Amino acid sequence: MIRQILQVLLLLGALPAMANAQEANTTIQESEWVAYKARFVAENGRVIDDANGRISHSEGQGYGLLLALLANDRADFARIWTFTNTRLLLRDDGLAVWKWDPDAEPHVSDPNNASDGDLLIAYALARAGTQWNDTRFTDAARQIATALADEAIFEQNDRLMLRPGVVGFGADDRPDGPVVNLSYWVFEAFPVLAELVPAVDWPALGRGGLDLAREAGFGARKLPSDWISIADEAQPAQGFPAEFSYNAVRIPLYLMRAGLDDTALLRRYREGIAGANGGLALVDVRSGEVKEELMDAGYRIIPALADCVLDGTPLPAELQRFAPTAYYPSTLHLLGLSYARGEQQQCL
Amino acid sequence: MPVAALVLGRTCLAGFFAAVVGGVAIAHAQHHWPINDDHISGETTDTVAAPFPVQEVPTAGEQMPPALIQAQASGANTAPDTPQEVDESALRYFARQGDTKRLEIEIARLRALYPQWTPPADPLAVPVNVDERLEAMWQLYSEGRLAAAREAIAERRSDEANWQPPQDLLDRLALAEARERLVNASEIDQYETVIRVGSENPQLLTCGEVDVLWRVAEAFAQTDRQTRARDAYRYILDSCDTPQERLATIQNASQQLTPPLLDELLALERTADGGAGEFEPVRNDLARDAVARGGDDATATVPAEQLARVEQLARAGDAASDARLLGWYYLVRENHAEAETWFRMAREREDSAEASQGLALALMARSRHEEAEAITYRWRNESDEIRAVYLAAAANLLGAEPRPTLAQDVLGRIVAEVAAARDVPGARQLGWYARAWEQHQTAGQWFSTALRWDADDEPSAYGLALTRHLLGDTAGLAEIKRIWAGRSDRIQTVGTGATEPAPRAPTIAPLPRATQQRSETVAPSAPASAQPAPASAPQTTVQPTGSATSRRTCATHADPRHLSAEAALQRGWCLMDANRPMEAVDAFAVALGGRSEKTRRDAAWGQSLAYLRVELVDEAAVAATAQPQDARRANELQRSILAQRAAGAFEHGRYVETLLALDERARIAPERLDLMVLRGYAYLNLRRVDDAQRVFQALAATGSREGVKGLAELRDALTPSR
After folding, report:
1. pTM score, two decimals?
2. Min CA distance, B445 vs chain A (Å)?
3. In terms of CATH architecture, what is B562-718?
4. Scanning A58, B16, B441, B719, which has the fewest C-beta atoms within 10 Å of its C-beta?
């Protein structure tokens, strides 16, 4: 059923220009990766969210895989994959459980998935399969991507959307459902998965996310909230803070990494996230009030990259140096640096 | 050459090997459970199990690497004939580890792949040109560090473009990872994943991995594929020999399978030389489960064989649990004599709340309340359930005919427990008990207490009516009749006919109509029991009459200011009975403006009672002075007010005021035990050690636990802190 819809959609609109964002082989330096993994990757391949009770999650494993790939470290990729495969990829539907807690017994207490984690894992696997010519990774990527299409991709108002989790976000689950999270659109993954599982209309999913990104500009700063109700016109979802926050900070980074050529949208984000002190602003999207200004280099590299892409301003030297801080900003930092080295060398 | 012959036809091995390999049975019908052979499981209504298919491949008993299976599947040996290319690293590694099982499998595998190959005479000999990096990978694998092993392989592949890891190592890693996934998925009930991984890795489903087989079986059972689950269990029982694992398999199966399917498995029991079946422990547990279900549900049928088995177990063993199961089984079937026998056996072996509760119920069913009370007393605080049984036993004991003469300590503890639990039937029966011993004041207090705890308890109201009539409290009797008008015929007839016992002892001062005491420790005193029972004790097993036949007149919210003083007074009492004291205060306030002196006096009395009930002690004191009361009322009020004032002051840590109130009260009434406790602690808090000691000693001398406790705290307080 959904496949038919997808094919129809494929025949309709033209795809936005999605440049192949795949970086050259090694865009993360060995020293950077060594520092990162020493801090955040355990011997058994577990990526540790040190600011969050040292738990692990599918998102973190996906990032770990992607960063190992960008560092061209096949060995670390292999061990991170082993943990991911044996500890998280347990769900009956073929998706990953989202959370692994070292202090809980069993370590998995909530069997729900997080679709961005699944997407990142599938994407990293697909690239690894190509880069290292390993069908083990390609096969696993195909399975996860297919499961995502079956379980998490859905149509709403003639657009393909991504359910944040299989359970709990649909129209039947909440009064303002469906609810989505725009930062779960890892745009750069879609062209790769489209090659791997062409029966699914990944470009249409990308277009759906891009359209939503254009629409969901709330308040004076025209930023999306982390969680968005798309039951009707896009608006901040109920039961979540109506804030552009730690989730959504990734969106402009993802847009840039995917090479999406929408300068107006990127500029809107760049202006919206501008903090008074050069940091990245977290914003109450209703009042426009800045709730917090994030000063970690991993966050600041996002507006800095936007400045470069939009206006040719080179990255400040201090942001070109990587030193691990906490799992999440450090991850964003390396993704940002990798992007600059691979696609925007004039920024360096 | 068929593989079977290859494996069986092993020849010259070093002595070390021969011992290892020769000792292993290789005659299993098959080496793993064919999980994917759906057709043999009979997912149909056909209850006759299809025979489990026997495959031709013999096995060394443990998991076999896929390479071998591929070799087998090809039907002919397609392996190269160049023995010098044989990778013996795994073999040597297992030999060094002393892992004879894996060593043997590895030999079998290599022989299958390389027919020309001869195993090394001494696998422990250090080979030339040992591949240390590969050895390290095997080391990681054998330690279960699968991620690190994968890392090492990938690292080497990056370093040496042409290096290929041994397929054997890759296969083993994949299998170990699959096993981990299967177990982890099983832990979080992802049954489809369990079955999928099991299906993709049938080499896991071997006697060496019964835990995996159990998990797969559970996954089938939990997804409505009972016969597939049975097949998995049956595979173990057909093929695997470890006694503990066989027993555990049946235990697992008993949790997952329906009885008919379980019976099929029980039929696979092996019998030892001594004649005892290996599944006896499970059969025992199944019988216990059946009897336990029979104990929960009187309609459940327990097969005679299972009942007899548990009885035999109970008699032969020395544990209390089987006897308890039988006790409940017979109790719910109202075979009280049998139940008593088993519960007594259980208690003799190990006294417990549960067995005591069961025995008490069996005894009570046969009207042996005294023992029931005695055996449950010790356990009363263990659970709400046994407390209820204790209170029921106590109430029944008090109400027994002829009236028992209870020892003072028994009576004392019943009083304490009834008061602590605010148990209405217990309080009521204490009333009847006191009445039987002609302690009518005490009886009246207990009936009143019962009514305070439950204003709708008609039997207590009836008892109170009889008592008031007996004591000549005409006004009090009239009040009860008014309250119960239309709700209890027999209360209306109290004092009007020949059916009532004649009033006794008219000279006894009428009982106070209400004692507004709230603390748990405040309860009427125990009736003394040293008097002969009167011949005409009232019937005690009074059933409540329908209380919903009429509503009280104060059910609606009327403004009392629109009422006459007389009506307001009535309404005030009515509200008091409905436990709406703040509204009663207002109603009595209206009645205070009445012309009749009696109305005003009653109103003041009522208002002070109402204030007392909501613990507005000072307001009560004021209200009490609003109208002069007769001496009895005034005294009663004053006592209550002072007692509450003392308690209130104590709660706020004002110990001097506590003592002042208590002293004042002591001038008009003897001090109750609970107030003595209060006094003791007030002294203690004021560091008046000698006074505190005197009070607690006096209390302890009465047998009061509070007194003993107080003395202990006093000692603690005097001990210098470390």
Report:
1. 0.63
2. 57
3. Alpha Horseshoe (1.25)
4. B719
